[in-house]
Design brief:
This is Cytochrome P450. It holds the Pfam family p450. It comes from Streptomyces lomondensis. InterPro entries: Cyt_P450 (IPR001128), Cyt_P450_B (IPR002397), Cyt_P450_sf (IPR036396). The chain has 288 residues and is mainly alpha-helical. It has one domain (5-171, 239-287): Orthogonal Bundle (Cytochrome p450), CATH 1.10.630.10. It contains twelve helices and seven strands. Strands 1-7-6 form a three-stranded antiparallel β-sheet. Strand 3 and strand 4 (190-192) form a beta hairpin. The protein is globular. Bound molecules: protoporphyrin IX containing FE. Residues 41, 122-123, 126-127, 129-130, 133, 171, 176-177, 202, 229-231, 235, 237-239, 242-243 line the site of protoporphyrin IX containing FE. Protoporphyrin IX containing FE (HEM) is lined by residues 41, 122-123, 126-127, 129-130, 133, 171, 176-177, 202, 229-231, 235, 237-239, 242-243.
Length: 288
């Protein structure tokens, strides 16, 4: 991820150059928060330029609930079919992109093709998360002057603010993926039977008053801040370091390059995404 940083900044600068050139107002979701993470994940994964729109169309449909389960299933089949072909075609590749690494690993017998596709799919789909999580962050920074002030006046303490925003933001519209109990477990007087699905809410955990005093308040100086925004245990978010890198670059670059950045509409007129798994503003019309 450290090696990726200069290239990531370059890709983001190209997008922001165009925003500056076109002059305000601009929808920063459309012009930055959406294209940047998608382009960067595609670059890391090794999606050829000609396939990027198609791949993005599928990943967007998979995390959306608007077309129903059938449309999401169709998109998932298409994406996974494409991934299988791509991994196969890179069996001899020495590239450093994820599809090349997986292709070479399958060819070398280190893992099965099914495992490789199962690893790559969620990574490709997970790339969508930053757009919406960072959208919520930007909305908060643009609507709460005290947070904006902290961001601008205390660059050395930005990490703490980012962690507090990650804790505070309800990333998902629902509780998340189920775990299936492998054996009977007794927990605080409840019996969970083997085979039962269990839903664990990271969102509720992030507002636990026993761990986070005044949990509904955003306190950029909160320490310690053991939030679970990226999950916990074996399924801890694979993309956490990439997500942090993208978020930090996006916020730093947008505030630096667009001086006086502010919403171009009243805050209560910002439209929010509906019928989708990940919460976030649909658009962020801004001026500067
Ligand atoms: C701010 C952005 C993000 C947030 C808040 C986030 C949050 C999470 C959370 C809470 C989980 C755990 C789910 C569970 O336990 O059931 C998770 C898993 C995962 N995330 Fe992220 N994520 C973000 C960005 C990304 C990005 C950019 C990628 C990929 C490029 C990614 C890839 C994944 C993958 C592959 C998993 C599944 C890990 C596994 O099951 O072993 N995420 N993410």
């Amino acid at each position: 991820m450290k090696r990726l940083r200069p290239r990531a900044q370059e890709m983001l600068d190209e997008l922001v150059d165009a925003v500056v050139r076109d002059e305000p107002p601009a929808d920063l979701v459309e012009r930055g928060l959406e294209p940047f993470p998608i382009a960067l994940v595609s670059e890391v994964m090794g999606v050829p330029g000609t396939d990027r729109d198609r791949v993005h169309g599928w990943t967007r449909q998979i995390i959306s609930t608007s077309g129903g389960a059938e449309a999401a299933d169709r998109a998932k089949n298409s994406l996974y079919g494409w991934i299988t072909q791509t991994i196969r075609s890179r069996a001899d590749s020495t590239g450093e992109d994820v599809y090349s690494l997986l292709g070479a690993a399958v060819a070398g017998g280190d893992l099965s093709e099914t495992e490789a596709v199962g690893l790559a799919g969620p990574l490709q789909i997970g790339g969508e998360a930053v757009t919406h999580n960072c959208g919520q962050m930007l909305y908060l920074l643009l609507t709460r002057p005290e947070l904006r002030q902290w961001w601008q006046e205390r660059p050395e303490a930005r990490d703490g603010l980012l962690d507090e925003l990650l804790r505070y933001i309800p990333h998902r519209s629902s509780v998340g993926l189920a775990r299936i109990a492998l054996e009977d477990v007794d927990l605080r007087g409840h019996r969970i039977r083997a085979g039962d699905p269990v839903y664990v809410s990271y969102l509720a955990a992030n507002r636990d008053p026993d761990v986070f005093p005044e949990p509904d308040r955003i306190d950029p100086g909160r320490a310690p801040n053991p939030h679970l925004a990226f999950g916990n245990g074996p399924h801890y978010c694979t993309g956490a370091v990439l997500a942090r890198l993208q978020t930090e670059l996006l916020l730093t670059t947008l505030f630096e390059r667009l001086p006086g950045l502010r919403l171009a509409v009243p805050a209560d007129q910002v439209a929010w995404r509906r019928r989708t798994m990940i919460r976030g503003p649909r658009t962020l019309p801004c001026t500067w």
